[in-house]
Amino acid sequence: MRRLSTNVVDVFDGATYRRLIGDPDEPTLLSVTQPESGALAVRLEGPQAARFDPEALVRRMLGTDVDLEPFYAGARTVAWLNLLAESARGVKPPRYPTLWETVVNAVVYQQISIHAAGAILRRVIERYAVARPVGGVRLFPFPAARMLLDADPLELRDLGLSINKINALKAVALAIVEATLVEEGLVELETPELVAALVAHKGIGPWTAAVIALRGFGRLDVFPMNDSGATASLRTLSGDPTIEAEPVIAALVPQQGMLYYHLLIGRLIARGEVTL
Question: Is 229 exposed, middle or buried (0-12, 13-18, 19+ CB in 10 A)?
Answer without folding.
Answer: middle
